[in-house]
């Protein structure tokens, strides 16, 4: 490994991962960082697929929504091929469909819609009043508290430097098996500079939107995604981009789970800037299946 590669920060590596290789018209190749995880992080696939779609859209149109399905676990050892289909180009909107392929099979599909910027009505719901990130436990202490009970592969993954830092407003979920209200407030921020480019900013936002989300659907059951008796995986992911953000400060990720049923849990999320602007909304359903004999 080159000295330059060794000196890269986790955010540098993420940005490099998002810089897809253009193989042909509408065809791209992406790689995965080798961090010891058994499958590709879902947020990475969403972000790379979005980058592929953005490269097939006019520069004056920006993503306003995406809807995606995870079909197979991604293999981090081999590249992912992203095939973009140009569904429609209208006077102000454009639609793209992306399929991610590994080992000759689709592992993920996404539809995304893009719009030219224009003036319109403007309102939003208010950001919840919670403690500021400086008042909360930092990354080092957080790892010490909740990783001590996690499986070895989870400790190895989360113990490494990551491109996004998280600071939960409450750590109760990690310290008890009590059944709690299915809601969470978590501060998140990139650990390094994000390029001054709205395409990269949207992709990084999509990447971090998949972090911690599914876990909230287990709060009401006194369980965690780190519970070895559970099979947990994202099934789909939807996201609406309301307002641009430079991602140069903390974001508050508020989450709630309105339902769990049929071995599936559904969670909604809202991402606010520190100043209270609603940046994006998220919805995700995931598999939360009890393993046999547990």
Give the structure's gist in a few sentences:
It is built from seven helices and twelve strands.
The number of helical segments is: 7
How would a textbook summarize the main sheet? 12 strands, antiparallel
Low-pLDDT ranges: none
Average the pLDDT over all residues and give the rounded result. 91
Helix-residue proportion: 10-25%
Q: What gap, in angstroms, lies between the N and C termini? A: 43 Å
Shape: globular
Give the strand line-up of the largest sheet: 1-2-4-5-6-3-9-12-11-10-8-7
The SS-based structural class is alpha+beta
Taking all Cα atoms into account, the compactness measure Rg is 19 Å
- Number of E strands: 12
Share in β-strands: 35-45%
**Element-by-element helix/strand order:** HHEEHEEEEHHEHEHEEEE
Helices and strands in order:
Blueprint: H1 3-6, H2 10-18, E1 21-24, E2 27-30, H3 42-54, E3 61-70, E4 80-89, E5 93-102, E6 105-116, H4 139-146, H5 152-158, E7 164-168, H6 172-175, E8 183-190, H7 198-209, E9 230-241, E10 251-261, E11 264-273, E12 278-290
Antiparallel strand pairs: 1-2, 2-4, 3-6, 3-9, 4-5, 5-6, 7-8, 8-10, 9-12, 10-11, 11-12
Helix pairs in contact: 3-7
Structure characterization notes:
It contains seven helices and twelve strands. The termini are far apart. It is globular and about 50 Å long. The protein has a twelve-stranded antiparallel sheet. A hairpin with a 2-residue loop joins strand 5 and strand 6. Helix 3 runs antiparallel to helix 7. The protein is an alpha+beta fold and 294 residues long.
């Amino acid at each position: 490994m080159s000295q330059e590669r060794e000196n890269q920060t986790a955010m540098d590596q993420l940005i490099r991962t998002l810089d897809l290789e253009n193989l042909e018209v509408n065809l791209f190749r992406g790689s995965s960082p080798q961090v010891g995880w058994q499958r590709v992080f879902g947020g990475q696939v969403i972000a790379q697929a979005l980058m592929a779609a953005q490269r097939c859209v006019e520069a004056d149109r920006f993503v306003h929504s995406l809807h995606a399905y995870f079909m197979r676990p991604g293999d981090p050892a081999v590249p992912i091929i992203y095939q973009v289909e140009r569904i429609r180009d209208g006077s102000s909107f454009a639609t793209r469909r992306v399929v991610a392929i590994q080992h000759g099979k689709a592992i993920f599909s996404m539809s995304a819609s893009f719009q030219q910027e224009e003036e319109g009505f403007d309102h939003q719901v208010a950001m919840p009043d919670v403690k500021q990130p400086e008042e909360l436990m930092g990354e080092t202490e957080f790892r010490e508290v909740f990783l001590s009970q996690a499986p070895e592969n989870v400790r190895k993954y989360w113990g490494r430097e990551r491109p996004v830092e998280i600071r939960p407003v409450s750590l109760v979920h990690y310290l008890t098996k009590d059944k709690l209200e299915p809601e969470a407030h978590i501060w998140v921020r990139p650990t390094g500079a994000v390029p001054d480019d709205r395409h990269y900013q949207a992709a990084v936002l999509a990447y971090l939107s998949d972090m911690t989300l599914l876990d909230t659907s287990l709060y009401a059951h006194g369980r965690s995604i780190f519970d070895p008796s559970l099979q947990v995986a994202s099934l789909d992911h939807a996201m609406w981009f309301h307002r641009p953000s430079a991602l140069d400060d903390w974001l508050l990720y508020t989450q709630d789970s309105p339902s769990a049923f049929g071995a599936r849990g559904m969670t909604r999320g809202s991402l606010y800037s520190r100043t209270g602007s609603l940046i994006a909304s998220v919805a995700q359903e995931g598999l939360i299946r009890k393993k046999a004999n547990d």
